[in-house]
Amino acid sequence: MKKFTLISVLILGASMAFAGGAKEDTGLPWVPEKPITIIVPWSAGGSTDQLTRIIAGELEDPLGQKIVVQNQGGASGSVGTQSALDAPRDGYTWTAGAAVDIGVYNILGLIDSQIEDWDIFLGVANVMIVSVNPDSPYQTFDDLMAAFKAKPGQISVATAGQSSAGHIAMEIIKKYTGVEYKMIPYDGGNPAVIATVAGEAEVTTQMAVEQADMLRAGKLRPLAVLSDADMDMKGVGVIPSIKKWIPEYETGPNYFGIWIPKGAPKEVIETFGILWDKYISNSEAIKNYAAERGAIFTPLWGEEAQEKAMSYIAPVAWLYYDAGKAKASPETIGIPRP
User: What structural domains does the chain harbor?
Assistant: First the structure.
């Protein structure tokens, strides 16, 4: 009996040594000891939820831990984002979404935070599409613009709420054309798209990745893409650039990824930089997602990610301010007018 116990102890010790060695062999500065949570501050099925679940799946194996995706919508994504800010800064709680959101929440009076308060890891850049219910009379973007002008403030547009991609898209269109519209906010891009399909709204301006399935199914009619170039979407065809109607249109893509609040241990950020370079930058799953759903593959982190994000945050922040929707000037948080 004593001999069996000794052998058992030796085997257990060898197993523990092997496990410890395995962790060291990862070459990562930080190895999580428990599951990680990513708070998606929007409803399930939207652009943030889609990308976050793919990223989580790509990172679980190299980290050796489960990554739990938790949907917590509300107040244009600010509720879930605030939850991540309030969590311990130990690297085990992240959030996700569009970089423009964490860049403008402050001036909109939603969260006392700005882009510099986060370590950001980008996955894709998204563009918005102006689409209508196929039963609507609008066959072209010209038709829709004529309706906006004929019935100011009456044409309903489904978006994911204030500061969402869909809202930004309509504010950009309003800036250049002067049209007024009736926004119907939903708790996420997917619900906004479904509402348009169901006829609750006539128009949606949410992102291509959120509309792709309904566009392919013929349940939405695309009129224009908010991009410098036409979009050729698989199973849909060519969607014309909005520059066909608004030649002076200027704005960049909307960058999406995951965010870790500043204050997390240095080795956590170093680990995710390594993972981003090794796994996310070579992820066939994310590349395929982008290609299938009309997104741009942009696996960036660090200073380069901050610069790319700010290229979109700055014009959007000033767009809100000039439209009278901001509670403070972007200059108060160090965003100069572009």
Answer: 36-125+253-333 (3.40.190.150), 129-244 (3.40.190.10)
